[in-house]
User: What shape does this take?
Amino acid sequence: MGSVIVGTGIAVPPHRVTNADLSAIMDTSDDWIRRRTGVGSRHVAEPGIGPSDLGAAALQAALADAGIEPGEVDLLVTATMTPDQFAPGIGAVVQAKAGLGPVAAFDLRQQCSGFLYGLDLADAMLRSGRARTAAVVGAEVHSGYMPFGTGFDVLRGLRAEPTEADRAAATASRAWSVLFGDGAGAAVLRAGDPATDALSPAERTGVVASRLFSDGTEFELIQVRGLGFRHQPYVDAEQLAAGLHLPEMNGAELFRRASIAMPAAVRAVLDDVGLSIADLDLVVCHQANERIVDVVRSSLGIDAEVAPTNIERYGNTTAATVAILFHELRLSGRVPSGALVCFVAFGAGSHWGALLYRQP
Ligand code: ACO
Assistant: This one.
């Protein structure tokens, strides 16, 4: 009785920032960003808009798509690495903003694998009978990380150039700041038909199987070292001066690990149920870098038709990428009845995995 995705929705802030816009506030170029990452533009939220706003809007769109009233949802799973505020998490905020009842609301901290972990958790709760209608939301506002200062005024058309100091700070961040974008995606799931349990994995519908992994020895590949309770006080001027509130990323090593771990996770989950790569109709891959997806494709022997991308338009929206891409593929008719989809992600922690889903 694998859980069935009955609705999806997305929300992105209206302001779109192109690579050319970024090259006005730091030393970079459209050519470098496109060639090394595949990103062409990303959406940037206004100050005051948090992931709970985007997440609630995406969830409301998913509920409308499913034809389900907010009051029917009895489980909410949210995932973000950029919460509205340090504590508490966004789960209850999304619950209230989306107009859900006083349901159980989880907060996941699995970064780029957050939505995948959320699907797995929702499926387990639905299978066990603990919930009947579950919502999974991935939402990020990465703009808060960006050390652009007056560069944001340039992006918003309020001044012609950033200060020299802000241009230098933005340039120092360019290896990671050009990658990320703001956005949210949501899916609504319902428990599947128990009669389908008797079917072979090749015939089963809904969530067919899932494999999740973590490896804390890779914790330092991408992290924000400051603003935590190993520090006393947990935030101070010294941490800010040292830039410990900014992401630190070992891009080359992350690239290598994601390129190996994602195909291995796809193979592992297929092996678990005796299916093969040739059975897959779609691979919905985390969108961190077009070149990583290229390596995943060649490692699995699949093409861009099977493993499409949308990173060109959104950048890396971390917990939201897989949800946004799946929503767009559904809308464009790429998930017909019977289609076997593999969701796969790799993110900070490290956390990664793959989940098989067959559209009823
Ligand atoms: N514009 C212009 N030049 C740049 C930029 C930029 N935005 N960024 C870096 N450069 C320069 C560097 O300074 C360097 O110059 P140098 O050779 O003179 O020192 C040169 O370009 C090459 O830099 P590299 O870092 O070696 O570039 P690389 O080809 O490795 O690409 C990248 C970097 C895009 C970050 C890549 O390693 C990558 O995508 N890694 C994976 C990132 C990832 O997956 N992140 C998120 C996963 S987890 C999560 O999402 C939470």
Observations:
- The pocket of acetyl coenzyme *A is lined by residues 28, 32-33, 36-37, 111-112, 174-175, 178, 222, 249, 251-252, 254-255, 258, 288-289, 316, 318, 347-348 (CB under 6 Å).
- Residues 251-272 form the longest helix (22 residues).
- DSSP finds 13 helices and 13 strands in the chain.
- The longest strand covers residues 206-214.
